[in-house]
Write a structure and sequence with these properties.
Elements: E1 7-17, E2 22-33, E3 38-42, H1 49-56, E4 64-69, E5 72-73, H2 81-85, E6 88-91, H3 103-113, H4 119-132, H5 148-160, E7 166-170, H6 178-193, E8 198-201, H7 205-211, E9 214-219, E10 222-227, H8 229-234, H9 239-250
Parallel strand pairs: 3-8, 3-9, 6-7, 7-8
Antiparallel strand pairs: 1-2, 1-4, 4-5, 9-10
Helix pairs in contact: 3-4, 3-5, 5-6
Length: 254
């Protein structure tokens, strides 16, 4: 057995702007995500959570440091970015479903076109996943016929259809009406029970406290505090973490 984490970030630095005027978005971020665990990234808007996920999926190029997937440096210029992305599933807050394609076609597109899976096999897996996520009757529907929660669940199915090694979820409830949040978070709970390795950027503090094995509080691009959910939410050490969570409690979100 190997103890190599699925994901490891080593001193990752990301900046935007020019050499003369730079904005540092991630500052020397270190992070390890063991297999079959959930890591929740929390922090105020602009703290670097979404940028971190985009760097992991190679949608953004880092300026320094390294990102390793199963021990392989995926930020090495010689790495095949497309091959890396085949091993990572991503769900964003905007569902990004193709409006002109049915739910089934949205889900089977990547397995067929990118992974070379034949149509029958891709559709069988898609229908199985749709059934599991409560969308068994929606395969032939177009996205605009689905509620927001159903669209987000379809987006999760699309990410799972490629059998990812790692699943990244970026504020997946942010665009949903409050009554739809629960159904999407229920899917994530189920995925945790099945052992999916996930990194979640979220403003849902109660949910993070419930499902996360590891919680990282980001502040101005720095992982200021990390620990178990009980440690970070129950007894935060850093003054900035304490102030952030106090605001969350006062807003009734924890």
């Amino acid at each position: 057995m190997t103890t190599e984490p699925v994901l490891r970030l080593e001193s990752v630095r990301k900046t935007y702007g020019t050499r003369h005027k730079q904005t540092v978005v991630l500052r020397d971020v270190d992070l390890e995500v063991p297999a079959h665990t959930v890591t929740a990234l929390i922090g105020a808007s602009g703290s670097g959570k979404s940028t971190l996920l985009r760097c992991v999926n190679l949608l953004e190029e880092i300026d320094d440091g390294a990102i390793l997937l199963d021990g392989e440096d995926i930020t090495d210029p010689r790495a095949d970015a497309d091959a890396v992305r085949r091993r990572i599933g991503v769900v964003f807050q905007a569902y990004n479903l193709f409006p002109h394609m049915s739910v089934l076609d949205n889900i089977t597109l990547a397995p067929r076109r990118v992974h070379g899976v034949d149509r029958a096999e891709a559709e069988e897996r898609a229908r199985e996943l749709l059934e599991r996520l409560g969308l068994g009757g929606k395969a032939g529907e177009y996205p605009d016929r689905l509620s927001g929660g159903q669209q987000q669940r379809a987006a999760i199915v699309r990410a799972l259809a490629v059998r990812p090694r790692l699943l990244l979820l970026d504020e997946i409830t942010a665009a949903l009406d409050p009554e739809l949040v629960g159904e999407v978070l229920g899917v994530v709970r189920d995925l945790k029970e099945e052992g999916m390795t996930m990194v979640i950027a979220t403003h849902e503090m109660g949910f993070a406290r419930e499902v996360a094995d590891q919680v990282c509080f980001l502040d101005a691009g720095v992982v200021l505090e990390r620990g178990t959910a009980a440690e970070v939410f129950g007894a935060p050490k850093e003054a900035r973490t304490q102030a952030f969570l106090k605001r969350i409690v006062e807003a009734g979100r924890l």
